[in-house]
Amino acid sequence: QMCIRDRYQRRVRVQNRKQMKTLIVLLSLLALTQAACHAKTTVTSAELRCVFPQLSIAKADLYAPLLSKRLAEIGTSNTCEWAAILGNVGTETNGLTEWRQIPCSITYCGRGPLQITGSTNYEFCSRQSLCACPTIYTNPNIVSDDANIGFGTTACVWGLLSGRNLNRYADGSLAGFRTTAEIINCGHTGCTPNGWASREAYWNTANKCFGN
């Protein structure tokens, strides 16, 4: 009986060691696919140019405080959230250099950092105090002509338009980032967002720039 018990205990110890090794491997893989999130409520001009090197210094200096103010209003508070936002913005606007859809052949074409599109969405955001953009439905061009209004629509699209704040998905994982891209581009999950490879590349760059 003693031998049987000893053999059983040895098997249990071996199984426990195997399970622990498996857990370590899984945690290591998770660490490789998920960035660390650090507290961050604002973005600097230098950080914008790190993520978007095509952006001029003058534009980065103008945009950084406006973007920081608007996204603080929807509770953006860590580097993973900022990386997800800039990952999408980068592809939507060629690194914040093209604020209007090309070509823009309809009245309510895509405009602004997250390319708000469609009359219903323009009207929705025009009624949100968070956006502070009451004239965009009657004057849609202002979204691409006025940086402050444009970033107001960014806060609306990211924080309100889908009925949920997309920061909730920006947990540092690629899967979480993809969810934000699907909702931004398709309006729902389970799709392939346009420019996915570009979005992922900008996201990876943003994570490096933020030290994630």
How would you describe the overall organization of this protein?
The structure is a single chain. By secondary structure, this protein is an all-alpha fold. It is 58% helix and 0% strand. The protein is built from 9 helices and no strands. Helix 3 runs parallel beside helix 7 (147-161), helix 4 (79-93) packs across helix 9 and helix 8 packs across helix 9 (196-209). It starts with a helix and ends with a helix. The model has no long low-confidence stretch (mean pLDDT 91).
Relevant terms:
9 helices, mainly alpha, about 210 residues
Largest sheet: none
Helix-strand category: mainly alpha
Query: With helices defined by DSSP (H or I, 4 residues minimum), what is the helix count?
Result: 9
- Low-confidence parts lasting 5 or more residues at pLDDT below 50? none
| Number of DSSP-assigned strands | 0
Q: What is the end-to-end distance?
A: 55 Å
Overall residue-averaged pLDDT value: 91
Rg from Cα: 22 Å
Q: What general form does the structure show? A: elongated
The ordered H/E elements are HHHHHHHHH
Beta-strand portion reads under 5%
Helix residue percentage? 55-70%
Task: Itemize the secondary structure elements and their pairings.
Blueprint: H1 2-33, H2 45-51, H3 57-72, H4 79-93, H5 119-126, H6 142-145, H7 147-161, H8 174-186, H9 196-209
Helix pairs in contact: 2-3, 3-7, 4-8, 4-9, 8-9
